[in-house]
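User: Please predict the structure of the protein below. I'd like the answer in structure-token form so I can feed it into my own downstream comparison script.

Assistant: Understood. Taking the following sequence of 204 residues as input:
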Amino acid sequence: LIKLELQPSEGTEQLSIHFNAVDGFFFYEDVNNVETVTNAYIKLELKSPIKRNKLMRFMVTCTERMTFFVYYVMSKGNIIDAGFMRPNKQTKYLLQLNATEKMIPKAKILVATLVNRTMVNDIVDIDFQGFRSNFDLSIDEQEIKPGRQIELSMSGRPGAYVGLAAYDKALLLFTRTTTCSGRTLGRCLTGSIHMTQMNSTCLT
């Protein structure tokens, strides 16, 4: 999702917005100066529990009768779903969306419509609490000297798998990113631990 903020100068009557992407996608829009004041709003309310692969029910309410509204589902900075709905000039509409894997662990649902040529919108945050990482990692020393052992204490859910990766500071000087590429991932992973209870391990 790209947010574009424009600050037109006083007296501007129209703005022409053009966008072209490298994949061939293009968009253009003319924005006209409209003097209007409105108290209209649209509201999005979650009406059901959040469960993976189950339908989520939302109530969309607008102060004016809606001929249409659009919705966007955003997660991890990407638009993963979108739609155009026609409520048939109703002020309330039951919106149902499937809680997919792409929404985990958090997502945002945005709805928007036009009321008297003015756009109104609302956003609801979706949080999959049950799918958060329940894992803690601590180290026994604050300062580490070369050649010494360190002890990492790990606690998490029984049956969970934990991958361990270690690299020295020289790697940070080699690249601006601290994540391992797909090619070097095998070198980064030094092992995995099958957690059957709250335990700790030693790395050398």
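That's the full token string. The first strand starts at residue 14 and ends at 20.
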